[in-house]
Amino acid sequence: MATRRSLVRIGLNVGLDGLLAAGAYVLARWMVGGGDPLTPAWALPWAVLALLLAGLPFRLSVQYWRFAGTQDLLAVAAAAIAAAAIFPIGLREGGGVMPGPSLPVAHALALIVLLAAPRLAYRLTQEGRGGSGGGAAILLVGAGDASDLFLRALAGERAAPFHVVGLVSTGSGQTGRRINGQPILGGLGELAPVLARLREEDRLPSTLVITDPHLSGSALAQVMACAEQEGVRVASAPRLTSLEAARGAGGLQLGPVAIEDLLNRPQVRLDREGMARLVQGRRVIVTGAGGTIGSELARQVAALGPSLLVLVDNGEFALWQIDLELGETAALVPRHAVIADVRDEARIRAVFEQYRPELVFHAAALKHVPMVEANPAEGLLTNAAGTRNVADAARAAGAAAMVLISTDKAVNPTSVMGASKRLAEMYCQALDIQGRASGGLRCITVRFGNVLGSTGSVVPVFQRQLARGGPLTVTHPDMQRYFMTVREAVGLVLQASVVGTLESSPAFLRDGGIFVLDMGEPVKISDLARNMIRLAGLRPDVDVQIRYTGLRPGEKLFEELFHGREPAVPTGHDGLLMARPRTADAAIVGRAIDEIAGAARGGNVRLALAHLGRQVPEFAHNAAPADAARA
Questions:
Q1: Which of 432, 426, 429, 427 lies closest to 401, judged by CA?
Q2: How far, rounded to the nearest angstrom, does the alpha carbon of residue 613 sit from its chain's CA centroid?
Q3: Whether residue 135 is found in the same domain as residue 118
Q4: What is the set of active-site residues?
């Protein structure tokens, strides 16, 4: 059916072009005063045939008149000139007489006009059918290619779902110009007065549509603030490659602005070839493979072609999910899903002896500060003793390198979680120094802040609270955190692994230092909450309330990435910094972990925390924070 419909359309194109070619020849003869166009009798049919023949290489017959653009019109012009050149040759060979030397020029001009005009008219008619007066009023933010494509797609709708009142440019010097007939009303810095003027003219849009794909960070926050002031919601236009997929049953569909866009994080160039050399053909174990970081590590490692990928987690459902996903997306990568708890030394050692990994990514941990405060023994056994179990098993199995995923909460910790991760860092740093000296296991530690949208993080909590209509709960108005996306964080973890294991890297990058991901500027949690409310098309403190609940046990207002005795050192790689090591002896730290684990297993949490405080002297336990922030 579709093929028959296509052939009918092509036949219709051929017939219409033939009629237009006949009309063009008659017009050309009239223009040069050449007498009867039907003399000789075959001249008119030959003019039609000449165009059809000339149009073959330019695919004139398969053009979509509705979408006629510059390339189509150039093809029309080329076919017209070719037809005007072919016609006199046939006329002369058939014994006809040229009515004048200017006929080819007149013929070409007539063909160009008569062939191009109806194509343009048809396109304009179709675009006009979309209308610009119906649907919700919108103002586009962006005045580049994406806006042009969006306007063209909107014009092609038979019943336009939106009515564009104008554009706001993210560049400079564009005010007063037009794109597809729509005026550029001002620059981004003039958005507030533009909206005020539209309100006074009773033309205030219901939605600001972000068409500029590069608009992010503070500039995007400024747009959202202006929108909130006028009670206008903010939405995102489909990307250039997604416009067709965005056409729903009701026409072109807008989407929400991604919360990631507010982070204003530049794209970091990663050494993908180095990552492939690190992973390809090697046996790799990922602990905590069912978690947010662990599962993304598993995905990115699988894409690099390991000879074997072993997924280790103590949660059956989470492990099953990532194993099922990799079975669909990386089916050719050999893998095993292993249920094991990093706190179980014998089980971990047995797993490592069985699979003999060459590379280990240790992401298993208890990371939720209030949960670890409520269950401190479990946090110490998992984060400190569990890390030692994994590191010792990796060394015994002959692994070349182990990568520890750490946290900014390990810097000047006020929580058990942070202090336990700092102890894990200390043990891995000490092992790394030993390994470098003896040619044994390299232990690379990577420290970073919060991962946007990870399990237990604030974003999913806010999303659930928004779905219930609020309020959104924030512990303190001044609470700040570092954020990055999970994909970016894991990419930089792999980058740090490459830098830390390369023998060609400078010595200071391979001597027990801690790689710290460049997290950019910290984000106020209250601002994040407000922006999420705005992204939902609602107004903070009007449609959805924000309620401050007070600091929880172990929480800090501000996180830090470096300790005062860990000066930050550039690594020469985008997105990566180095914290100079505070060295410790592996045997001493190991004995301390044994003492802490013994006390924790025996239920003596007070003793375990006392041992922890001696090993991490900067640990200032904020077990019962003042509730001054409650409102």
A1: 432
A2: 41
A3: no
A4: 409
